Amino acid sequence: MESSELDGPVFADARGMTLYYWPYTTMRNGITGDPKNASVCTDTPTTKTAGLMSPYPPGLVLPELDKRQSCTAVWPPALADDNAKPVGAFTIITRTDGKKQWAYDGHALYTSVLDQRPGDVMGATTRRSFGDGPAAREVATPPPAIPPGFAIATTATGRQLLTDKRYSVYASTQDGPGKSNCDAACTRTWAPIIAPESARPQGDWSILERSPGIRQWAFRQQPLYTYVLDSSLASQQGSDVSGWHNVYTQQAPLPPRGFTVQDSTTGVVLADGNGRTLYVYNCADDSYDQLNCNLPDSPQAYRLAICGGGKVERCLHDWPYVVATADERSTSRTWSVVEIDPQTGHLATPGQAGAQRVWAYRGSPVYTYVGDARPGDINGNGNGEFGGSRNGFKAFFLRDDFFGNNL
Amino acid sequence: MQHQFQRQARIRAVRVLCAAMVLGTAAGAAAADAIAPKDGKIGFALTGARWAIYQTDNGKEECPQGFNEGPREQFKALFPNGGTVEATQLRREGLARYPQDREDKFPYREAAGKTAIGLNLDDKVGPNDFTSQAGASGIDNQLFRAIGCTRLFRAPDGTFAHFTNMWVRELGFNRILIELTGVDSLVNDDAVSVSLYRGLDRLMTDATGANIMPGGSNRVDERFGAKFIHHLKGKIVDGVLTTQPADVYWPWAVFLGRPGAYTIRGLRFDVKLDSQKGEGLVGGYADVDSWYEQLVRSWSTHHSSYGGLSQPSLYPVLRRLADGYPDESGAMTAISSALTVQMVQVFIQHDADVVTAAQGRHSPNKSDGL
Predict the structure, then answer these.
(1) Nearest to A245 by CA among A185, A150, A175
(2) Probe site for chain B from A225, A266, A383 (most B CB atoms < 10 A)
């Protein structure tokens, strides 16, 4: 097991490389992904679309076939030795070529060619996404060490502690370690999270007795509450109240210095130093493999269609990269500086003339949008196929108050 | 919908007659007092909104050439033998976002006829204006001409018309609150103030959960909803609220995770009110480019296929029919439009910390999976 910046503890192979699985996923016009105890990720590159996403028919020729990789080249199977034995939820499946592959809870396991070091999660994330996104790979993670009644959500701000019904969990700076100072009037707004009689302290989790027989959960000595005025799931609304804050098991890496946060009509967005909202570009193709096309080394035809109707100069004008100054360096594995050839959208070669140093989130450049006139504008949000879920741009929300903090 | 407006017109006529009969009598004065809201203030929440489309049963009157074809049909006609992703799918997706690059000329069917739902926005009667079903001339609703023969926008079966109307109620992002202040009477008052806010809370329903009830309360979103706050001047005549034109940013999220808004210039209300509810029209000039971009961002090619909407085909029509707010070159930047709206009375809470009657825990993801 390794620790990751975004997804907490993750399962890893013997080299420490993060393990992923590919959930069986229902698309608009069919199903793809691995069924339980099997792998459909093969060594043969796909050449045509599968027509999984309406309205376009199957059989369209995929871009840049001469460079196209197979599913297993991008997602190497986590192969098991001939002598390997199942361990608990880790089992062994037989691939169609006869090779043995590790599986967890019946899901065939892979590594990602994008990961360079133990703890990298560049291939995917456990973060939820709405609707018509790709049949994405997910990080294989152990069950979190939390009591019944709690859950953890991977969000843009960190691993957020929730109840199992996805209501936010809060703590107060007015409380002492293991002691609640929230009186009867306070509890009408801040509902203590009650621990059942059978609950026992363990690890970061402890229990305080509010009054005889009334026990309250605490995490890292902070008494825990929910906020009765939350109108959205996984909300951060309670953190607007002085002295109260959401609880995280792990904070997400901080954005680069000089970035700003702005209020939009939906919540808080990450923005550049001038207040212009940042956008991430999402893309997966319509093959059965559902391979990513959002990275600089992916075919750029998808992005160019959306950002400029196929025209490079229009893309650069309408969706400019977020340039990193000469002295700015990567601040984490999550936020990095990459050198881009702006004419091709691919990574520049070392020393290439005209290359731009730009900021990237999880290896994919971030952008601003020319149609945003004022700080907090999100006029580019959703620009792309299926509202930007498949081939398009989404604003970098740090908080949304209206869609379950899923944007 | 036309039946509702015919009925509304009849009701209005009867009310005017009744008001005339009791004018100057003590009974009449007592009736007016009884409907003066407490402290001169009353709030409403929007519960439904659709782009106003005049529809006959078979569409023959307003769409004599039939309805428009959509992305599937156009794709099949353009690429009968398929091709590469770049030359087919991505070309069409790029064109939806940059429709000025238009390269195909599919026929586009505009709504015809003389009748439309809407308001006289410019106080003129022009050659392209419509007549309302009640006989009012000078109706400005060129958006109806542009989208009236596209099934997506027609009620009740058009998916845009159906779902966006539903999301007015179900998505908190779209919680538009309308607050009237300085109201002496809900029947006749020559000067009232009208404020628009975004609310924070769900709407109160009856025990079935299907019917929204008056009497709930709703907090004002003064932070993230700041751009949606507008103040208008209006009056009430015979129970109908009308407002002076004002530029308004109108929240319009669709699906889950697609927040958006329309910029409507010279927006005005024409809504029949009582102490429980309101129903009528909101008219104004929709900024063409932002209206189109909002449509493209929120309604994918897939979703547009279920209703015959080709976005690249629609855009030049919107530009051509635009009839308001010329730019420096004289080109019109906005298109006359109208929304049919319904609203229900709510108590608007300006103190965000107040625990309100309607507030309570609920799943904002009720529509998950749509």
Answers:
(1) A175
(2) A266
